[in-house]
Write the structure tokens for this entry.
Amino acid sequence: MKARPLKRITSLLPILGWAPAYTKTDAQSDLVAAVIVTIMLVPQSLAYAMLAGLPPQVGLYASILPLIAYAVFGTSRALAVGPVAVVSLMTAAAVGQVAAPGSAEYITAAITLAFLSGIVLVVMSVLRLGFLANFLSHPVISGFITASGILIATSQLKHILGISADGDTLPHLLGGIYAGIGGLNPFTLAIGVAATAFLFWTRKHLKPLLLAWGLPARMADLIAKAGPVAAIVVSILAVIGFGLVDKGVRIVGEISAGLPPFALPSFDPGLWQQLLLPAVLISLVGFVESVSVAQTLAAKRRQRIVPNQELTALGASNIASALSGGYPVTGGFARSVVNFDAGAETPLAGVFTAMGILAATLCLTPLFRFLPQAVLAATIIVAVLSLVDFAAIRRTWAYSKADFAAMAVTILTVLLVGVEAGITAGVSLSLALFLWRTSRPHMAIVGQVPGTEHFRNIDRHDVITDPRILSIRVDESLYFANARALEDAIYDRIADQPELRHVVLMCPAVNTIDASALESLEAIAHRLASAGIGFHLSEVKGPVTDALKRSDFMEHFKGRIFLSQFEAVTTLTGMQHQDDAATG
Amino acid sequence: MKARPLKRITSLLPILGWAPAYTKTDAQSDLVAAVIVTIMLVPQSLAYAMLAGLPPQVGLYASILPLIAYAVFGTSRALAVGPVAVVSLMTAAAVGQVAAPGSAEYITAAITLAFLSGIVLVVMSVLRLGFLANFLSHPVISGFITASGILIATSQLKHILGISADGDTLPHLLGGIYAGIGGLNPFTLAIGVAATAFLFWTRKHLKPLLLAWGLPARMADLIAKAGPVAAIVVSILAVIGFGLVDKGVRIVGEISAGLPPFALPSFDPGLWQQLLLPAVLISLVGFVESVSVAQTLAAKRRQRIVPNQELTALGASNIASALSGGYPVTGGFARSVVNFDAGAETPLAGVFTAMGILAATLCLTPLFRFLPQAVLAATIIVAVLSLVDFAAIRRTWAYSKADFAAMAVTILTVLLVGVEAGITAGVSLSLALFLWRTSRPHMAIVGQVPGTEHFRNIDRHDVITDPRILSIRVDESLYFANARALEDAIYDRIADQPELRHVVLMCPAVNTIDASALESLEAIAHRLASAGIGFHLSEVKGPVTDALKRSDFMEHFKGRIFLSQFEAVTTLTGMQHQDDAATG
């Protein structure tokens, strides 16, 4: 009896599960991983804050306390939380609706969004609503991320070109770039293109090169991952050395150094109402992304994550982000993989990373002053273009037109209308297509495979049928949306077959029959009876039979329920012979 | 080749199908039915117009041209269209949102609503969207009608009591009656109670009594149906004879006589926007009601109706109603049954009824001037209380808690919030519950029934299992909402069974596998492979196999697809023996 409360506490605070057994070896692994992730996360935090329309230090704030909160509550050993590209874009879209970029209200709204998102996640955890994330189908998520990647990359082009351009949708963004292209700054362009090319090169070719030079794999990996740091250092030196600020190259500028502030979200009900839907969407998208990364990594080491506890952990991370002046965060794919590959053994790696970011926030911010925005934009572009997956679009088209439709609508709506509309349209369409499909169930007239007790579709197999018996198999649960389709199919068939004496509905794929379908079965039985035709069921599943017994269906039902279609046909043919003999 | 265009025209204008073969006998039957329906329809038209908050003559207008339009386009031989209780209530709710009762704008809005509803129905017909009505499940429709009946009956109490009271919801209506009960008019109350009691009595007891007196059945029926006419005549005479108007009994008052006016709906886009959702809901509810009545009656005479053509016919009826100063109409249950029982053979009965109503509109309206509103209210109360079906609530509760939940939410929302909110909530909840259920599919671990090739649930049957082979049957199509549930179930089981060598997923109830579920199957195969466990499928349906072949699943898939579970277990056990022999 003593173990149970402890187990409950451990399941609420997973840190209690691993912390007592923490070893020195673990600490070494975690520290190495933390150093690598910190190097990667500092420029990303600045860049994603810029993408979200926020001052750069807000990105750093969002990379400190949230990591510690996740370490306490999270069940993944390798997940690295913080600002990510897609959520930053969604933040910009949501907050841009309620406040002007650059204003104090904008920052407050971003903090409030993080807080609301945290509340939504915790509420989902308490009410065990994590299953809602299952309704974001794979094609919708994949399309959403691809389209967001395109949108984000396009939105960063203005920084590479050194022009001013605004817009939330692809046509607006492209229109803005087209209109502003005359004001192109050649110095900015040179830095931007060089940084982008360099980052693509380090990502693709640096590690193989270093390995070819004989460096140990670990070291090669570490150097390749530090590519963005090199780009930052070189570009800062170039800006200072060549006095590029005077030549119109835009830089990050003053970043307020110091500890993350203690911040409070706004409690204005009007603002909450405006931000609630975005907060729900950010929570769902963030949760799906985070859990799929965490599950992939956990599977590699035979660990398990607890999706419902992940909701709590991400909720706590977002609340922590809000209270320390940050904006919405979630588990990031790239940084988690880096953390995992670098050997992180426990969530303490996240705590060490948080300390690294804190140190950077306290000491390094003056160094970033001369960092060109174009380099941050290059970091973002290189990161998000890896999210764009055109092959998935082709695969989905080949496999299923319905899935492709959901994906295409998601992509087009994200690009042409916006991120929130895109995910809403994709989810709605995929649900509508599922409902539409189940409302038109596959039905097959079946006959007996000669020499066996099996019954198969007469259109696909050479089978024996009896014109007096119609065996029809319905390949779907019967519920309100398809009950009438069943009626129509049966009525159509009986009109064609005047010798018909019995209809047997074969139900091996019927997992439930709801009240509407029950009414339809009663209507069918009634109508067939008045035409002198018997109506029977076969291969009804246990749970369905149990449910039918709870209704008064059995009292009215004159037909029989056969265990197998073979039994049905044998029995009914036998009865038929007797009838024929009696009348003959 | 000549027959085809003719057949197409006949399917668009069903009147061409029956008119050429029309006989004198048909004409006699239709005329008799028309007389009876006219007698029934005149007071109902006045009453339902009052329920909709419209002047009484609008109810008459809605009972002339729409009947002729239905006769031309409709496929039911017995359906009688016109104003009905539920649609009148929905009209009052919708139009009351945009205009003040009694104003000219109110009448224009009602006309516009009829026009919009007609357009919606015709568009649904052209786009073949009739299947949308299938998403109104039986419990939702039943609950909606019961709750509407209660709401309508309550809303008429004020006329019986002779007080003023307003409200759209049950609490408001009851509150209004409670507040106004002091102003109760005893004369009105006497008339109202007497009329209600008389109408209930004629409906329940008059026909048996007449039959007991030896009257022929047809005559008894006719006299019983004329009950409301008797109540009207007697009450008019009483009002005039006793000078009840001076004693505060409210009467219908002046009704403008004459032909229905030619009217045009408003084309104000703002008004259209406000009325569009109500028009869609009225169209769907009206269509479902009308089609189910028409189907029931058609089945009795072995006729068929064409649901899609019914959309056109109801659309034409509503447009005809709008253009002649009427409001939304649909096929009514009571009057169609009366029409059918009275022997209507063709839709020409409807045309004759229209002429009867037209005659009444031209000649009889002065007579209705002194008709007490309490008598019309009594007609409505008696009509709608027959719609209230508490037994259906009990039956649904016994059969399925999910269906009951949808019904209960519909009823409560209609009573407490309103009709539109009620039907929306009911449909949303029934869809959500369906999705939720399919997102948690029934899965069973199965074993072999001794001595057979059948595999059944190990929890329900005594079966043989092999600890090295896990046979798991999933009783649902695999799609995005349940793909993760399948993964979790399999991962949970493999953790428990260390001797496990093979997992076989038995798919007889899997009707489709979407792209998300395909990803999950790949993930499961990958994960099991890395744990040294084989993953196989069995009893995969033809269409599902075809789909899998279109993807690259088969290229990666290392497992086998067995025709039957028996084959799977036999083959895998054989392989197992070989492996054991090799390692042993």
